[in-house]
């Protein structure tokens, strides 16, 4: 079970006051990290019922929207390193959710397609994802969620944030 930084620190010092965050409580990056962890806990729990991780779900969504997309493009879109991408794709192929095919004229790369089982599982996963999204958006009172999303997209474009 995951505990908050404050709770886990306090648990190690039972008779001490809660430790001060030393200025981190006003740090945007720290607040974003804590929010990201909370959102990922919720989506991970929501997708557990269909036995998918958030990265698997994201890959399936992209493959559904772009049948035949090359495997490397999915890695670039999701910012997943090649070794991690290969093992993730291998697992999805192994579960019978996607097919890996050689595109005509290019035997060094693979194009990806959902199988019928992949389409069925993705339909159930979208339902779980929609419920997760509704919970998160409800915390931002509707229109404010869109404002937050725009700001997060802007933050994602900061210089030096691109993965190598």
Description:
With 164 residues, this protein is mainly α. 60% of the residues lie in helices and 6% in strands. It has helices at 5-12, 28-48, 54-65, 71-78, 82-94, 116-138, 143-156; strands at 69-70, 98-101, 111-114. Strands 1-3-2 form a three-stranded antiparallel β-sheet. α2 packs across α6, α3 (54-65) crosses α6 (116-138) and α4 (71-78) packs across α5. The longest helix has 23 residues, at 116-138. The radius of gyration is 20 Å and the shape is elongated. It starts with a helix and ends in an 8-residue tail after the last helix. The model has no long low-confidence stretch (mean pLDDT 85).
Between the first and last Cα atoms, what is the distance in angstroms? 33 Å
Structural category: mainly alpha
Tell me the major beta sheet.
3 strands, antiparallel
Pattern of helices and strands: HHHEHHEEHH
- The CATH topology of the domain at 53-144 corresponds to Arc Repressor Mutant, subunit A
CATH class of the domain at 53-144: Mainly Alpha
Strand order of the largest sheet: 1-3-2
The number of distinct β-strands equals: 3
CATH architecture of the domain at 53-144: Orthogonal Bundle
Radius of gyration: 20 Å
User: Hey, roughly how much beta strand do the residues contain?
Assistant: 5-15%
- Within CATH, the superfamily of the domain at 53-144 carries the name Winged helix-like DNA-binding domain superfamily/Winged helix DNA-binding domain
